[in-house]
Each structure stands twice: as structure tokens, then as C-alpha cells.
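Intended use. Records like the one below are meant for learning the mapping from a protein sequence to its folded structure. Do not use them to infer anything beyond what is encoded.
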Amino acid sequence: MTFHRYGTAAPALLAAYGIVRLSGDAEGPGAAWTTGHLLLLGSLALFVPVVRGLRRRHLHPAATAAAAVALTGLAAGIVQAVIDLVVGFRAADRGGMDALFLAVKAHPAVTPAVYTVGPLLFYVGLLALLMTAAIRRPVKRAGGWLAPLLVLLGAVAMALSLDLLVVSAGCYWLALMSSPGKSPESSWRWLLPAARTGRRTA
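Structure written out for the chain above:
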């Protein structure tokens, strides 16, 4: 898969997770909980090559550090999704899930590492990656600073309410599609076949 395909598939699965959450039956164990968290797990896994692709576009120590932060956050999010899936499989009802979550979070450092601080590192790292791209490869069109602004908007929307996951996913997709790359053709213009090479197709 190419960067743009990963960059489309990851937000798409996140949006699908958001839609499942809005179904109204995703707060307890069952098909909706399992389906939603499998979609979330798939989305987080697909963001790994997205982060690596952004880092390869901008071979700079700042981009490498930002990618490491983002990948750490993705690892925390993946662990959280796996825990949520296991809890959903083991519990018979919401009360049982709450008891299992309390047992998991009773272990030292689990809450900050997996549920609070850890997952946030993905958004911090992704924002830093796109800011590095905007600083090192300034562009005059819609890319450049639009990409980090969209990531920030998506993160704020998600922080306000998980019911806005679809909005957040859309922001992340637009950010990835507008992020400046090694050449002008690597941004919005990839949507136009003739713009891939910048030459006429006689």
C-alpha cells in the first residue's frame, strides 16, 4: 500500500469506529463493543506506516524524534484497545466490565501509560511531524500549516467528545492528504492523475 492509501484507510477505520459508538449500543460487552474496538485497533495499526512514511519524507532529527513520540503513543493506544477487547470478551455486563477495568488500572503506571498520557503522545508526535514538514518545506498552497492545524482541530474535537470521532477522522484524513512531501505532487494534487508527473499525457 502507498502512503496515501494508508493515510486514507487509517482515518476511515477511525470514522467507522465513531459511527459504531454512535449506534447507542457500544458501551457494554457485545457485538458493537467488539466491532468498534476491532476497528479502532485496525486504525491504530494502519497509522504506524503513516507515521513511518511521514518520517521518511523528512529525514531530520526533529522528524525522527516526533515519529518516536507518535509511535509510542500508538503502542499505548493499541495496548488499550487490546485490553478493552479482552475485558469485553470476559465480562457479562457493564458492571462486570467496570470491575475488570478497576482491576487492570490497580496496577501501578497502567492508567497514565495506557489510558491517559500514553495515547496522547500519538497526537503530539503527529502534530510535531507535520509542523516539522511545514517548517522545512514551506508551500504556498493549501498544504504546509493547514495539515498541523487540521490535526490540532481533530484532537480538540476528540477531547471534547468521543461522539465527534467522525469529525476528528475527517480532519486527520485532510491533514495527511495536504501534508507537504518531497515534491509538490505529494500533496492534494495526487488526486489528479496527470499531476503525478507534472507533464502532459499526450
